Amino acid sequence: MHIPFVSSQGVGYTDRLAPLRLVAKGASLLVILIGCIVIVGWIFDVPALKSVLPTWVTMKANTAICFILAGSALWQLYKSTKRSARYAQILAAIVLGIGLLTLIQYGFGLNLGIDQLLFKEPVTAVATSTPGRMAANTALNFLLLGSALLMLSRPYPFQAGIQAFTVTAFFIALLGLLGYLYGIQEFYGFGSYTKMAVHTAIAFIILCTGILCLYPDQGITGTVTSQHAGGMMTRRLLLTVLGVPPILSGIILAGYRTKLYSAEIGLSLAAVFSIIVFASVIWLNARALGKIDTRRQHAEEQRQSEARFRSLTTATSQIVWSTSADGRVLEDSPSWRAYTGQTFEEYQEFGWLTALHPGDRNDAAQSWKQAVQTKSLYKVEYRLRAADGHYRHFAARGVPVLAEDGIIREWIGTCTDIHNRKQAEAQLQEREEFLRTIYDGAASLIFVVDVLKPATFALRGWNAAAEKATGIKSADIAGKTPEEVFGPEQGLIVRQRYESCVEAGTSMTYEECFSFQGQEGWWLTTYSPLQDSNGNTYRIVGTTFNITERKQAEAALQLSEAQVRQKAIDLEHTLVTLQRTQTQLVQS
User: What angle do the packed helices 61-79 and 82-108 form, to 10 degrees?
Assistant: First the structure.
């Protein structure tokens, strides 16, 4: 049964680390190849295959066999099946056993007969204390790596121990390789014991790398491959830490050996150059991490903004929508879907237009096209069909979300139900038209006055009857004071009437004599105050009727009554005179 590699950090992480798993596979094959080449060198006695150079140490046959076994164990572990894991256990146990037996021989001065079991090596072999016996540091590495491979073959491997063993073996091998590069035997062997061969050190480095890459998301390797800031910093520093000190030390050592400077100067140069290199690397990493942190903060702010947007979408009663930069609907809007009854497939792209009233679609489409082209606010009102087939008035608003370079990234908008408001506006308009008809059609004069301050008044306008009576258009009196409209004397009287109305806070009626267009007349005027919620008068509405004829009739009636009374008096006086005359005649 195949057991696929699944990263502890998720499937996407697994896909990203798949190439590192291939490194483990390649390392196993390369180590097997190195071991086989050395075995061929022992079979056919080819010195170049056994020791690379005549003055260097040979890779012992046991060492080559152990590399073949260890590489095969790593290959089996890469296959990740239960059967291959059992094979890997057997191979790793053999490697561990050979390394352990070799160390026992060194430790107790024994010869267990395993060193030249396959091939004989002359006593005069370079840097070899016992013919055919691998170096003590080589045996220690096989003990460490055999243990690591054995633990890897277990169902629940102890990664901390595995990687600790592997890293230790890696640095032992790296020290041996540097010994050959620097020409220092003490780096690749202990005292008079057999030394580690150069290709042995290289094979160990390759094998350790393969073991570490087998599970690249765990332990030390997991830290290196992490996508967090720590992993990115480690990857940036790793090659510098592993490469710069050896190169720098080699250059300084070469200068010392050619007597360019003393050992003290060489050590000082090494310290100074190390400080410069690592300070530069740290600064570059700090700058890179600063940029990464800035991007992370921006991403976090965007994530929080998107979370707030999703919360708002869920909580609001409005229809919330988003589109691509060119205005196409690409994401589902649950609120739109719930109201219109359209499926996402029906309203995606520009399918949302079909939910609009046919009479409004063209205006909505043109407004949308203009907003996209000009990167401006999208604002339009249209009738939207509900799931039950009825249309309601909606106000759509959309704003472009711009990237840092000014390019539209997406559009975010809402659709607000304004059906009740539109009905209220229609009713209000009907009422205003009704009142306007009365206002303009009334025979009486109607005027409106704004109360700006307790003692400041400005006429707002009057109706057609007032225009006819005064000969002044309503637009010509707008904003003017009573004195400006009626003249100083009449204006003062009118102002006093306004003030009395404001002070009383109730309607007041007066009979007034005013002159318009050179004709004097009498008017019956009623002033009615309009008050706000605080009881303050903010406007006065007045109505006035021409009562000149009535006043003239009253005057004529009064004159007629006076004449009748005078005639009655005259008649009575005449009767008295006649009576006196009659009495005198009788007496005479």
Answer: 150
DSSP assignment of 123-138: TT-TT-SSTTPPPHHH
Tens of pLDDT, residues 27-71? 999 999 999 999 999 999 999 999 999 989 999 999 999 999 999
272 three-class SS: helix
Q: Are 22 and 216 in contact (CB under 8 A)?
A: no
pLDDT at 286: 81
Q: Per CATH, the architecture of 316-423 is what?
A: 2-Layer Sandwich (3.30)
**Confidence (pLDDT) at 261:** 85
What is the C-alpha to C-alpha distance for residues 166 and 210, in angstroms, rounded to an integer? 10
* Greatest extent of the chain over all pairs of C-alpha atoms, in Å: 209
Tokens of 331: 């994401």
517 — alpha (psi -120 to 50), left (phi > 0) or beta? left
The sign of the dihedral angle between the CA atoms of 429, 431, 435, 437 is: positive
- DSSP H helix total and E strand total for the chain: 19, 9
Q: For residue 553, give the H/E element and its range.
A: helix 548-587
Could you tell me how many residues make up the chain?
A: 588
State how far the Cα of 97 lies from the Cα of 146, in Å rounded to an integer.
8
Cα–Cα distance list, 26 to 78, 201, 206, 211, 277 (Å): 10, 17, 9, 11, 33
DSSP result, 73-100: HHHHHHHTBHHHHHHHHHHHHHHHHHHH
Cα–Cα dist 496/484, whole Å: 15
The predicted model scores a pTM of 0.56
pLDDT at res. 211: 95
Q: Which CATH architecture has domain 442-546?
A: 2-Layer Sandwich (3.30)
State how far the alpha carbon of 520 is from the alpha carbons of 462, 486, 490, 497, in Å: 20, 13, 12, 19
* DSSP code of residue 349: B
Can you list the residues of the chain whose pLDDT is less than 70?
A: 1-16, 305-317, 435, 441, 454, 516-518, 588
Residue 414, beta-bridge partner list: 320, 397
Q: Which residues pair with 530 in a beta bridge?
A: 539
- Which residues make Cβ contacts (< 8 Å) with residue 126, sequence separation at least 6? 51, 54, 55, 56, 57, 58
Whole-angstrom CA distances from 290 to 191, 275, 295, 299, 564 are: 49, 22, 9, 14, 114
pLDDT value of residue 5: 44
176 burial level (CB within 10 Å; 0-12, 13-18, 19+)? buried
510 - beta bridge partners? 525
pLDDT at residue 10, rounded to an integer? 42
CA distance 437 to 440: 5
**What is the DSSP code string of 195-254?**
PPPHHHHHHHHHHHHHHHHHSTTSHHHHHHH-SSHHHHHHHHHHHHHHHHHHHHHHHHHH
What CA–CA distance (Å, rounded) separates 365 from 362?
5
